[in-house]
Design brief:
The complex is a heterodimer of chains A (293) and B (358).
Chain A: H1 3-35, H2 42-59, H3 64-87, H4 95-117, E1 132-135, E2 138-141, H5 142-164, H6 166-176, H7 178-183, H8 188-214, H9 227-233, H10 239-259, H11 264-279
Antiparallel strand pairs in A: 1-2
Chain B: H1 9-13, H2 19-38, H3 41-66, H4 74-90, H5 95-117, H6 122-142, H7 144-147, E1 153-154, E2 158-160, E3 163-165, H8 168-190, H9 193-203, H10 205-210, H11 215-241, E4 243-244, H12 251-264, H13 269-289, H14 295-298, H15 303-318, H16 322-336, H17 352-357
Helix pairs in contact in B: 3-8, 3-11, 3-12, 3-13, 4-5, 4-6, 4-11, 5-11, 8-11, 9-11, 12-13, 12-15, 13-16
Classes of the chains: A mainly alpha (293), B mainly alpha (358).
């Protein structure tokens, strides 16, 4: 395989990994924009989603698509519940309180998952497993293609949702200015709950897509920490930014495997994060915001 | 009943508000100094860990509780301190010099991390410090010519003036001295002009700047001081364990440090100490309680993590002033007896938040 082909190959698989980062970052950004909650448990929601999918499909022998849909629905409900029980009572407290609660939640989700599903690493096959697609000279596994296609479809659906549906517009309004939205008669409380449901549902999609590629285990949520560099890179608060940021991080990481000494691929995302924060803190697409006293 | 009548600002600045406080702190100090005479190895080891954690908690409290900056990367400062001391001593540097160098080095790294922090707040800072911690961890693993990578380092015994300090009692005293020095420094910083500048930045950066506080310098200083304390604690920790390796200093340790100051109670030195005691005592209590727990629960290997997760959520939601809140109220109950009223400690919260909540 030529050098150019190898490069293309790495870019392609980096894009697929990047799409996972992007999906986690997307859920994270949605929740942050709407409710100003920084959800450090987003990666762990993804992990729980993957385990649920595994349970429905492999243990309960439901058809793959039904099982996946069910897992996404259950996670959405769980997300809504989290907002009502855990986050809503915290409204108005500082960012630090929220960070600590979501960090605590992420510990609890990991503990809970290892109690329910055990600490073993499990394989979760999808209908795309062990098949490949030839694109020019590049060989891609169908799983990677599925990830990319799902991400594109999801982003398109979200775009339409926020642009044209009443509830999507209400979500945008309450993330712009909760008080003004409240005065306009938008049920901000329910909108927040719905946003959490959406965020957790997207996390579940990411988990189910990632599962065949990376196996399912209790600590797979740590991958979610790579979603923060993605979100910051994209300007922290912009949805297209999160997608582009995630894909950039994925590609940079897989190119680091190819061209940089061993170990760099583990920290490439974080080096990139620090560089962006130092040079352009508002991210690639963001506008500098100023908070009043 | 006792009533401290403060008539000037100086009254608030006093180290000991009244003679009783002076006496009780003196008694506590004497007790800690004499502890090795009466206590066995187990108790001494736990006390040593309280001092090590306490030193970290004091450093983190200065940063989080007093200056209002978040750090998810304190495990990295801890690691740098531990590794700096270990590597220097392996190469024959005397213990005290290695300890001081470890503190100074982490302080300098703290400045380096504090500089980008000048432009960041809240969540951005949390992520930058998180990224920093991951990078430090990777550097320790990969720079194996110095750090011996994943194999870890055996830490030589501390030697002061030719005397080998290798027993548990010696390390207890080392930890106690380092903790006491950091405590003294922090108490004095907090009640000085510098400490008030930190608090002003925490409460409102713009207001602080418009009152003439150089926000950049004080934020960097907070990071440097906090990192130094954590680095010193790391150096002591390396000696307590005798062996260090990269996986001891991962992200969960950073989170545990934060949990410590949250449960202790933000913005109070008492809180830092309570938090340190708490994170050392709780796992021991869990071990003691295991025989009495239902089998299903007792068998879980990560009971500690679960307990910390639940507790940090409960404290943030229901007792944001932490253990220190209980302490303050209990003290007030005795000081104000028979006039204590719980409503004196009620917090007022009115704002957009209430609209959303109700």
């Amino acid at each position: 395989m030529g050098a150019a082909n190898e490069l293309l190959q790495q870019v392609a698989s980096g894009t697929a990994t990047g799409c996972i980062y992007a999906l986690v970052a997307l859920g994270f950004i949605l929740i942050f924009k709407a409710t100003e909650v920084v959800n450090f448990a987003q990666g762990d929601l993804m992990m729980v989603g993957a385990f649920l999918g595994l349970t429905f499909v492999d243990t309960m022998h439901l058809p793959y698509w039904l099982g996946a849909l069910l897992a996404i629905a259950v996670m959405a409900g769980f997300g809504a519940l989290l907002n009502i029980v855990l986050l809503r009572p915290l409204a108005g407290q500082g960012i630090f309180a929220v960070i600590m609660v979501t960090l605590g939640l992420s510990i609890l989700l990991r503990v809970g998952a290892s109690v329910i599903w055990g600490p073993e690493t499990v394989r979760f096959d999808s209908p795309f497993s062990r098949k490949v697609v030839h694109l020019g000279g590049v060989v891609l596994s169908q799983e990677h293609v599925a990830i990319i296609v799902t991400t594109v479809a999801l982003v398109a659906a979200l775009f339409l949702f926020f642009r044209f549906s009443r509830i999507g517009i209400a979500m945008q309004a309450s993330s712009e200015n909760a008080l003004a939205a409240y005065y306009m008669g938008i049920p901000v409380k329910s909108v927040h709950t719905l946003t959490w449901a959406l965020g957790a549902g997207i996390a579940a999609i990411a988990g189910i897509m990632l599962a065949p590629v990376a196996f399912v285990h209790v600590n797979m949520g740590f991958l979610g920490l790579k979603a923060f560099p993605a979100a910051v890179l994209g300007g922290f608060g912009s949805i297209p930014g999160a997608i582009v940021g995630g894909i950039i991080i994925g590609i940079v990481e897989s190119l680091a495997v190819l061209y940089l000494p061993e170990g760099f691929n583990n920290v490439a995302a974080y080096v990139l994060l620090l560089l962006v924060l130092m040079i352009r803190p508002q991210g690639l697409f963001g506008v500098a915001a100023r908070r009043k006293v | 009943m006792r009533f401290a009548m403060n008539t000037s600002y100086r009254d608030y600045q006093r180290l000991f508000p009244h003679r009783g406080a002076l006496l009780s702190y003196a008694a506590l100090a004497a007790l800690l100094l004499l502890l090795p005479l009466g206590a066995g190895g187990y108790l001494l080891t736990q006390a040593t860990f309280v001092f090590i954690n306490g030193t970290v908690a004091l450093g983190l409290m200065l940063l989080v509780g007093y200056t209002g900056l978040i750090s998810l990367g304190h495990a990295a400062f801890f690691a740098v301190g531990a590794y700096a001391a270990a590597v220097l001593e392996v190469h024959g540097v005397p213990f005290v010099a290695a300890l001081v160098t470890a503190g100074a080095l982490t302080g300098i790294i703290g400045i380096a991390i504090g500089l980008p922090a000048l432009r960041m707040r809240g969540i951005y800072l949390a992520m930058a410090t998180l990224a920093f911690a991951f990078i430090v961890d990777e550097v320790i693993v990969r720079w194996s010519s110095v750090t011996r990578g994943n194999r870890g380092i055996m830490v030589p015994d501390a030697t002061v003036l030719g005397v080998k300090l290798d027993s548990g009692t010696h390390i207890y005293y080392i930890a106690l001295v380092v903790f006491a020095l950091v405590l003294l420094a922090l108490v004095n910083i907090v009640r000085s002009r510098t400490g008030r500048a930190f608090a002003a930045i925490r409460d409102s950066e713009i207001a602080a700047a418009s009152m003439g506080i150089n926000v950049a310098i004080f934020k960097t200083m907070a990071f440097a001081l906090s990192a130094t304390a954590t680095g010193l604690a790391g150096a002591v920790y390396a000696h307590k364990l005798g062996y260090i390796s990269p996986e001891q200093f991962d992200i969960t340790l950073s989170i545990e440090f934060l949990i410590m100051v949250i449960i202790g109670g933000l913005g109070s030195i008492h809180g830092a100490v309570f938090g340190a005691i708490f994170v050392v005592v709780l796992p021991q209590l869990i071990i003691l309680a295991k025989p009495f727990l239902p089998h299903v629960i007792a068998e879980q290997p990560i009971l500690d993590a679960a307990a910390f997760g639940v507790l940090v959520i409960l404290f943030v939601m229901f007792e944001p002033s932490g253990l220190n809140g209980y302490w303050t109220r209990t003290k007030a109950w005795f000081d104000l007896f028979p006039f204590y009223r719980p409503s004196a400690f009620k917090r007022d919260k009115i704002g957009v938040a209430d609209l959303v909540r109700h």
